Amino acid sequence: MKYLRFLVPLIVFFGLVGFLFKGLFLDPKEVPSPLINKPAPAFSLALLDKPDTTFKRDDMLGKVWLLNVFASWCVACREEHPLLVEFSKSKMLPIYGLNYKDERMAGMKWLATFGNPYDASLFDHDGRVGIDYGVYGVPESFLIDAKGVIRYKQIGPFTVEAIETKLIPLVQQLKKEAGNG
Amino acid sequence: MAKLTRLLAWLCLAFVVGTASANEAAPASADPVLEARMLHITAELRCLVCQNQTIADSHADLAIDLRQQVREMLQKGQTDQQILDYMTARYGDFVLYRPPVKSTTLLLWVGPGVMLVAGLVMLVLILRRRSRMPADKFDAEPDEEAVGKP
Lengths: 181, 150
Fold this sequence. Notes:
The complex is a heterodimer.
Chain A: H1 4-24, E1 44-46, E2 54-56, E3 65-70, H2 75-88, E4 95-100, H3 104-114, E5 120-124, H4 128-132, E6 140-144, E7 150-155, H5 160-180
Parallel strand pairs in A: 3-4, 4-5
Antiparallel strand pairs in A: 1-2, 3-6, 6-7
Chain B: H1 2-22, H2 32-42, H3 61-75, H4 80-91, H5 106-132, H6 142-148
């Protein structure tokens, strides 16, 4: 009975250490999106370079595609962008850009400078579509399946590791699903 | 003389406070009732850009947009609950400063209460055990006494 008086605080202490240790590896900025496995919110937006052409979510039904949120004012996007340009060369899936709360000229100039990995860019000047997608930090990316359901969200810039271990296997899986369905 | 100094100090303070409130941003909506409701709702919502601020307090671009969004939803006659649902559908329970009680948040809600009760139980147990101990147990040990003396 006597040793219990030392054992109990010790167990409590190590419990606390365990929680704090786990906390070291959690990123509070990464808030899991409630939109995963929900239909992608509908939108209808003008293209960045062609103000008269509109693009709707439903235009992409039947295809697995990636929606990448970017802006010319976003510093982390510059870090991610070369990876996307490189990835887009694989022609694995259509990539669309969502130019979030940006100016048309600035967005187009940015793509001209850093390369354009997008099949097309959509112009979300007032950020309304961004709000519907729960965007809170640019860049963010949404992988949307053939039925128009969001299956994966990358918060913050893509890394080589995230593309290779998460994105590519999931795209292959979703394409297979689409083929069977 | 001392009285005059104090009076001057008060006047200075009044001036500072007066200008501080005058510098508050003018409400973006003309309707003060709607503005008050908007602030009431957004004070319940966490800003995801600067996570320890409410959307009502934050100057982040996203918070400004969301305040405008709430204003518009209120103008359309939506209820507070509809607006909170709109926000959680996009950003998850994390935006709510008072998350709903669910199986995943149960520990969050009852945890502090459980800890408090556990602490009280411990306290009572220790006090009761001590009250049963003979009085001489509380005298200082001989060697402790020796340490205390120079």
